[in-house]
Amino acid sequence: MCAASPDNLGTVLWKDHPTLRSLIKMVTSLRYRFPTVDCDERMRDETKNAEQSARGEVSAAKFFW
């Protein structure tokens, strides 16, 4: 989808979806590490916080059901 419309859709996905951006970086560089190698400490901390938040949401949803 990004390749079909890189100026519109590709730009939006690249800016607004950091996980997708990381997947694109991993596929193009053939280095499958998450977070990607080029991340700085701030980006790594943001990734860790987002992952912890997502795990908390999943745990809360499982508890609710």
Determine Rg (CA atoms, Å). 15 Å
First and last CA, distance: 35 Å
Number of strands: 0
Helix percentage range? over 70%
Tell me the structural class.
mainly alpha
- What spatial form do the alpha-carbon principal axes imply? globular
Low-confidence runs (pLDDT<50, min 5 residues)?
none
What does the main sheet amount to?
Answer: none
Taken together, the total number of domains comes to: 1
Strand content: under 5%
Helix count? 3
Order of helices and strands: HHH
What do the pLDDT scores average to? 77
Description:
The protein is 72% helix and 0% strand. It has three helices and no strands.
Structure summary:
This protein has helices at residues 6-16, 18-29, 41-64. It has 65 residues and is mainly alpha-helical.
Defining traits:
65 residues, mainly alpha
Lay out the secondary structure.
Blueprint: H1 6-16, H2 18-29, H3 41-64
